[in-house]
């Protein structure tokens, strides 16, 4: 070892002889090599393929795809709980605007109703 005469020992500066040796960890019981986290396990599980039967026909796809298919089918058939789960996902991922990006013009009747509501709001704030 080199002479430690010019090395200042203190907070965050341990003596050279007591530092971790190369290849030795300070956390001997830490995460074992090859251990995986929850996110990795969840991603792998959702990517794995599974077969279900829809109208007596076998459908094989990833579990993630099958979950979305089942949720969308239930929401489309009137299951309000499924719709409450699916609609926020759709709005977060796809947004609320139409895909073509154009704003649709209101019909004359809808525009009249909207103008009437806005006029009533203005009248309330003026009072």
Tell me about this structure:
The protein has 127 residues and is mainly alpha-helical. The chain has a domain of 57 residues. The protein contains four helices and two strands. Helix 2 crosses helix 3. It is flat, with a radius of gyration of 31 Å. The mean pLDDT is 84.
The Rg value, from CA coordinates, equals 31 Å
Strand content: 5-15%
Shape: flat
> What is the topology, as strand order, of the major beta sheet?
1-2
What is the end-to-end distance? 88 Å
Biggest pleated sheet: 2 strands, antiparallel
Q: What average pLDDT do the residues reach? A: 84
Q: What is the chains' assembly state? A: single chain
Binned, the helix content reads 40-55%
Low-confidence stretches: none
**Could you say which structural class the secondary elements and strand pairing correspond to?**
mainly alpha
The total strand number stands at 2
**Secondary-structure element order, as H and E?**
HEEHHH
Number of helices: 4
How would you summarize the topology of this molecule?
Elements: H1 38-47, E1 49-54, E2 57-62, H2 63-76, H3 80-94, H4 108-126
Antiparallel strand pairs: 1-2
Helix pairs in contact: 2-3
Keywords:
mainly alpha, flat, 2 strands
Task: Give a quick rundown of the structure.
By secondary structure, the chain is mostly helical. 46% of the residues lie in helices and 9% in strands. It contains four helices and two strands, in the order αββααα.
